[in-house]
Amino acid sequence: MTAEVKPSSPPLTERQEARRRRILHASAQLASRGGFDAVQMREVAEAAGVALGTLYRYFPSKVHLLVATMQDQLHHMHTTLRKRPPAGETAAERVAETLMRAFRALQREPQLADAMVRALTFADRSVSPEVDTVSRQTTAIILDAMDLAGAPTPEQLSAVRVIEHTWHSALITWLSGRASIAQVKIDIETVCRLIDLTGPADATEGPSRR
Length: 210
Description:
By secondary structure, the chain is mostly helical. The protein contains nine helices and no strands. It has a domain at 62-197: Tetracycline Repressor, domain 2 (Orthogonal Bundle), CATH 1.10.357.10.
C-alpha cells in the first residue's frame, strides 16, 4: 500500500501572514515575561487581536505555537548573523563563534528560551513538521557559518547534526542551571572541531568573501 501524500497547504495571504506574525509576537512577549506557563492560548489570542478559534486554526496547541515561535526567533537570528558574518579563520572557529552569538541572544531572554526549549522537548509526532523546520534552520545557520567553497560532504553534514544536538543539549543544561556560560563555550568549541576532521582543511584559505 502506498503512503497517502497530503496536499501542501496553500500560501498565506498578506492578511493571514500579518495575523500569524501578530500571534507569534504575542506568544514571544508572554513567554518573555513568564515562561512556558505564561503562554495561555486565550491570552495569546487576546494579545494578538484574533478569535480563539482562529488561533487554533493556525496553531493546534501551545506546543505547536511555541515551536513556531522558536522557528521565528531563529529566522530573525539568522538574518542578524548574516549581516555580520563570523570572522574566524577556519570553519570550526566560525561555527563556534556563530553558535555562541546565537546562544547569547537567547541568554538575554531566558524565560522565552526556556519556553521554546520546553515546547521542543514536549513535542510529539503531530509537531514533527515544525520541529523539522527548527532543525533545518539551525543547520542553515551552521552551514552559513562554515562558508564552504562547495556543497558539504556527507561527513560534514553528519558533523553538523552532532553540533546541532550538542548546541541544543548545552542550551538545556544551561537553562536548568547545570552548566555555566563558560562550560557551554568550551563544549561548543570542542564539538565544532569535528568540522576539521570531516573534510578538506580550509585553515589556509580563510573564509570566502561574500
